[in-house]
Write a structure and sequence with these properties.
Length: 280
């Protein structure tokens, strides 16, 4: 019993230690490498800490690479995709949660199956369609693609949120003389605010990390995101020692820092939104 008690006390700390080593150390190394002078990035022995960080690498990334364009494109792409997916998913989710019609279960199952379909399976027909419509290498085309990927899961999660709202509140609003639009605006939307925030943040993170569609459907810096820029810079030189590790670290840091700040600031809202949809 004593051994089990000790293991029960020590186990969580061991798990946190393993998590930090597996996930925390690589993040720390990337952030450190991005503020080190270029000659110290691959120094031996390695530099584990610095008292004189420099932004030289970020300045070089902005000068030698269109890193500013990549960052702007990533923000526009992620924000627009997250916003569009949440708004469109709400209308579909409300229909599934409140209206009873023939085939609703089959449609929900179809949404679930679309999430299991590999992205690469539809790449060729989508690219041909986009080429005919002139949407290749356009930010609008990328946002449309990413939103279509995010909507199915968003609908599934949002249905559970809407079902937690008592129908009596909406019926009372109708009895007070409110029409459907007023009921949605005054009753449903305020109660859905935690769900909107949570799903928007989750979709933003997913779109921010998206690589496949921006890599396939963008050919110039006008629509390339940070993920594509990071992939391209790794292909500059084939040798590991000759690759621009400092610039790679700077681009990776630009990807990591916004997500860390966003999750740190909004973690309470994310947890509150997820638990609100999980309890009844």
């Amino acid at each position: 019993m004593r051994l089990r008690t000790r293991l029960g006390r020590v186990g969580p700390y061991v798990g946190l230690g393993v998590f930090f080593v597996v996930f925390g150390v690589p993040v720390y190394w990337i952030l450190l490498s991005s503020v080190l002078p270029p000659n110290e990035v691959l120094s031996s022995p390695p530099t584990l800490f610095t008292l004189s960080p420099t932004l030289e690498t970020f300045e070089r990334a902005l000068q030698q690479l269109p890193a500013g364009d990549y960052l702007r494109n990533s923000l526009v792409f992620a924000l627009s995709s997250a916003f569009a997916s949440v708004i469109l998913a709400f209308f579909a989710a409300y229909t599934f949660a409140r209206l009873r019609f023939r085939g609703s279960g089959a449609l929900m199952l179809f949404l679930l199956l679309t999430m299991a379909l590999p992205q690469i399976a539809t790449t060729i027909p989508l690219f041909q369609l986009y080429a005919k419509l002139g949407l290749v290498d356009t930010m609008g085309g990328l946002i449309l693609l990413e939103s279509s990927i995010l909507i199915p899961m968003t609908v599934w999660l949002m249905v559970s949120f809407i079902k937690q709202i008592p129908v009596d509140l909406e019926n009372a609003s109708f009895m007070d003389g409110a029409n459907f639009a007023q009921t949605i605006h005054l009753v449903v939307l305020p109660l859905m605010r935690p769900a909107f925030v949570t799903l928007f943040l989750l979709n933003f993170i997913t779109a921010w990390n998206e690589l496949f569609y921006p890599l396939v459907f963008s050919s110039t810096s006008a629509s390339r995101t940070l993920t594509v820029g990071l992939v391209q810079i790794t292909q500059v030189n084939s040798g590991a020692s000759s690759r621009p590790w400092d610039l790679m670290s700077a681009l990776a840091a630009l990807m990591i820092i916004p997500i860390i700040l966003l999750v740190t600031i909004m973690q309470r809202r994310i947890i509150a939104g997820l638990t609100a949809g999980a309890t009844k």
